Amino acid sequence: MRPEFGRADAGPNKKKTTVVFLGLILLIAITAGAVSVSLMKCAGSLRRSYHTIVLGDKNYVEGRFRVQGHGTSLLSNGRLAGFTTLRSSDCVNVIVLAEDQGSPEQAKEEMEKRIRGASKVVEQVSLFDPHGETIGQRAILLVQEQPGIEIVAQHKNDAKLLVIGSTSLAHALAYEKLIQNGYRIDRDGYFVSQSNNLAPGS
To answer: Of 20, 45, 113, 140, which sits 20 to 30 A from 4 (CA to CA)?
Structure first.
């Protein structure tokens, strides 16, 4: 009779392989569940992850925004700010505020205060009318408070400070451009560019 070698180790090795295999199945199931939940909340998150992580496009924006809510809030100066919250089709939030500062002079002062207090001034430019006359100023700011990015604009004769905030500079700029160039509402309730006839759901 030939001796049988290695039989004593077969049991523990088989158990170890089984445990590893079950662990991999569990990890796959958890990952699949997380992806499913993410897709249920916002289907565009997967597309955004693909473009930003796989393709390395940090400025990827789908360019469609849907209103989530609106209302008014009380400012520290005792006046009111109207706000609208929006969400892009690739799952990034944007908030738009019109802050009543009381007078054009106070609005300009608040604008300058925000510029001084920003962590970084990405851009600061003057605003001009079609005749080349200066009518106000605009700045892109990185701020410590949420949401982190602010596009702030102030017009000479306006007591309001206009603010677009987001965690994504690309999305804040995309929404600003959408409003400036004109928009329509597609059948899914998203704001889209008037010239974007090929937008998903249009």
So the answer is: 20
